[in-house]
Design brief:
The chain is an all-beta fold. Strands 1, 2, 3, 6, 7, 8, 9, 10 and 11 form a 9-stranded antiparallel sheet that branches. Strands 12-14-17-16 form a 4-stranded antiparallel sheet, with no helix packed on it. A 4-stranded mixed sheet has the order 13-19-18-15, with no helix packed on it. A hairpin with a 3-residue loop joins β8 and β9. It is elongated, with a radius of gyration of 25 Å. The model has no long low-confidence stretch (mean pLDDT 91).
Amino acid sequence: MSKISWGKPSIYIQDAEVPQAPWLKIPTPVKDSTTLEVEDGETQEAEVEGGELEDEKTGKNKSTLTFEIRAAKNRHLIVADDDGVIAHHHRIAVVPEDPNAPGLLIDKGSMHATPSYTCAEGIKRSYKTKALVPDDESHMVKIGKMNVTKSGDVVTDITCDEETEATNTVSASPASLSFAASGDSAKSVSISGASAITSASPNRGWLTVTFNGTTISVTAAANENTSPRKATITVIANGETVKIPVEQAGATA
């Protein structure tokens, strides 16, 4: 049994707009054509005078699942298209060769087909599925153990037990820090549940962080702007990551 999701997957497709539509298993895709491409969500930044970053907001990722199917004798289209346009939203499930390894499920996707031809490869169709927000507003791409329910040879349902976040055994005390505009003196943070700190680094240049054993020391440069500012310190200890938010008041006008 494998530990990871490599090997030949089984891919299933279902019309998401037809009640109780069957899950159809597609032919095995062209070698190395099955990919999930993820584009980072757009980031909005709120800057203040002097170029300091006061806050930021990042949107959700944009994900596209792609696979290619080679045309062959007596092989029907997996789904009809009108010059590439595929009607209805669809659900797509990728079940790994080892059913206990994690697969992925797109509960609502917009599909498009692009044909191509070469003498070496013959006719192929590339299917792209852009993941959309499901009606229940759950994750657009679910990753975890796949559950395939069958009635005889017919697949009646496919669900995904999504991966859960591991429980952190390492914690920081205090969990956050605040500084006056002047910067104050150095402040200490104790990292419990760890034998030693591997690294501790801030994401803003106005913070200085050092560490020894399981204690970090933090100093802040004076904030000459009237607006408060924020930063985050990332601590790695025992292979776990702890993030410590830091705030500093703005200077008095």
